[in-house]
Amino acid sequence: MHTERVIVTEAAAEVIKALRSAHGPLMFHQSGGCCDGSSPMCYAEGELLLDDSDIWLGKIAGCDFYMSRDQFEYWKHTQLTVDVVPGRGSSFSLEIPLGVRFLIRSRLFSEAESKALQPVFAAPDKPG
C-alpha cells in the first residue's frame, strides 16, 4: 500500500461534492503564485492547461491533484491535506462564491511513509 501524497478533510470533500454537482468533473492545481499565495485551486476538469512541467500527485475526493514540477521539489517531503475554511480567497477557484476557500495543511512524511510513497507522474502521463 502506498503513502498518499495528498489527502482531503471531510469538510473539504463535502465542498468538492457540491462543486462537482454544479460544475461536473473537477481538478486541483496547487498554486504557487504571488497573488493567491500557495493555495489549492479548484477548476472544472480541463480548464487549466497542463504539460510536462506539472506533476500529478494523486486524487482527492475523485479529483486529480497537480502542482508545478518546481514547487514539487519543495513539497516532495510533505503530505498535503486539502482543507476548507470560511473566507474568500483571491483567485479564480470554484469555491469562492460559496464563501469558503481551500487551503493546504502539511506535515513531513515519516521515514517509513517516505519508503512507501505513491509515485508521481508528469501531468500527461498520469494513470487512467
Main attributes?
128 residues, alpha/beta, Hypothetical Protein Aq_1857, Chain: A, five-stranded mixed β-sheet, 3 helices, 8 strands
Structure description:
It comes from Robiginitalea marina. Pfam families: DUF779 (PF05610). This is DUF779 domain-containing protein. The structure is a single chain. The protein is globular and about 40 Å long. It has helices spanning 10-23, 69-75, 111-115; strands at residues 6-8, 26-30, 40-44, 54-60, 63-68, 78-86, 100-108, 121-122. It contains three helices and eight strands; from the N terminus they run βαββββαββαβ. The longest helix has 14 residues, at 10-23. The strands form two sheets. Strands 3-2-5-4-8 form a five-stranded mixed sheet. It has a three-stranded mixed sheet with strand order 1-6-7. β4 and β5 (63-68) form a beta hairpin. The chain has one domain (6-120): HesB-like domain (Hypothetical Protein Aq_1857, Chain: A). The chain has 128 residues and is α/β, with parallel strands linked by helices.
Find the count of extended strands (DSSP E, 2+ residues): 8
Q: If you average the pLDDT, what whole number results? A: 92
If classified by CATH, what would the architecture be? Answer: Sandwich
Helical content, roughly?
A: 10-25%
**Sheet of most strands:** 5 strands, mixed
N-end to C-end Cα span: 18 Å
The ordered H/E elements are EHEEEEHEEHE
Query: What would CATH call the homologous superfamily?
Result: HesB-like domain
Strand content: 35-45%
Strand line-up in the sheet with most strands:
3-2-5-4-8
Number of domains: 1
Number of helices: 3
**Uncertain regions spanning at least 5 consecutive residues:** none
Using the coordinates above, name the CATH class: Mainly Beta
Shape: globular
Instruction: Find the CATH topology.
Output: Hypothetical Protein Aq_1857, Chain: A
Q: State Rg.
A: 14 Å
Overall structural class, as computed from helix and strand content, comes to alpha/beta
